[in-house]
Amino acid sequence: MGTHSNARLVLVIDGQGGGIGVQLVKLLAPRLPADCELCCVGTNSLATNAMLKAGAARGATGENAVCHNAAQADLIVGPVGIIMANGIMGEVSPGMSVAVSGARAQKVLIPSSTCGIHVAGAEGLRLDEYLHRAADTAVRLLSE
Known about the structure:
alpha/beta
């Protein structure tokens, strides 16, 4: 799933049913700069398929796909659980969390107290508002 030509790789990572990833793909796809390719990696095939249906250009599934594509990405977007060992109800392996957190890419993470992480300063907004803010942040970072 390497990038085509000189396209910048925007990687959406999600697990479970891919609900957060689906919304991120829908919000990002129409707004990305022309030199960007929107790809997705799911911790499971259900999440990957949902993100592909939502409009991601390409997708892959599983630990190796997360590790490989995180290393290639220019920007990574997903729930905060993607940087936690055993995050997303155990779907994120320690290897995945190391690959994502250690990737050179900028990361835009959606806060979620359901994974036991409470981000000081997070405003307790509804998930859809965090998703819109994440998409705005991603587009801003790619435009700088």
